[in-house]
C-alpha cells in the first residue's frame, strides 16, 4: 500500500518537500507542485516544467543553476516507482532503501509569482547515472542523500553542494518487481 511519502504521484501533483524557509532559514516541510517553474520565467503558460534535473549539468544549465545555488530541497519518500527500460521485458518496480529508512531525494524548488499575485511553489528531483541494483533496469535514478549530508545540501552549513552530486559508495537501494506491463496496463496484483 502506498503512503504519502511514496513518489507515486504524477507530474503536476503536489508532493512533500523539505526546504529552508527563505525568511527564517529554518527547515520546513511544504506541499509543492512537481514540475519546476523557474521564478524568472517569461512565458509561464508554455514553458516546459521539468520533473528531473541531471546532476551532470544542474549547476550550469540556466533553467536550474539559480535554484541549485540558492533553493535546494529534500523530497522524502519511502519508495519510488520505475519501469524497466533495459535488461528484460517492460516491468514496473518499487525501489526503496535496503535498511527500510525513508529516502531523502535531492531536489530543487522555485517560487513563481503569477500576474494576479498568486505564488506557486514547484520542485524537481535530481537524477544521476544509475548504479547497483537499479542499473539493471534503468539508466537513471534519483540522487539519494545520506542524513549526514542534509545540512550541506540544504545550505545550513558551508560547503560546496556539488560534492554531493554522485551516488552513495555502497548500493543502498533495493528493487522489488511489481508486475509486467503490456498493452498500456499493468498486471500488478493488489
Descriptive overview:
By secondary structure, the protein is mainly beta. It has one domain: SOS response associated peptidase-like (hypothetical protein yedk fold). The chain is 7% helix and 38% strand. The chain is built from two helices and eleven strands. It has helices spanning 62-70, 150-154, and strands at 14-20, 27-34, 52-54, 72-77, 79-83, 91-97, 103-113, 119-129, 140-142, 173-182, 185-186. The strands form two sheets. Strands 1, 2, 3, 4, 7, 8 and 9 form a seven-stranded mixed β-sheet that branches. Strands 5-6-10-11 form a four-stranded antiparallel β-sheet, with no helix packed on it. The relative contact order is 0.20. The model is unreliable at 1-6 and 183-190 (pLDDT under 50).
How would you summarize what this structure contains?
It is globular and about 50 Å long. The chain has helices at 62-70, 150-154; strands spanning 14-20, 27-34, 52-54, 72-77, 79-83, 91-97, 103-113, 119-129, 140-142, 173-182, 185-186.
Highlighted features:
190 residues, mainly beta, hypothetical protein yedk fold, seven-stranded mixed beta sheet, four-stranded antiparallel beta sheet, 2 helices, 38% strand, disordered N terminus
Please render the helix and strand layout as text.
Elements: E1 14-20, E2 27-34, E3 52-54, H1 62-70, E4 72-77, E5 79-83, E6 91-97, E7 103-113, E8 119-129, E9 140-142, H2 150-154, E10 173-182, E11 185-186
Parallel strand pairs: 2-8, 3-8
Antiparallel strand pairs: 1-2, 4-7, 5-6, 6-10, 7-8, 8-9, 10-11
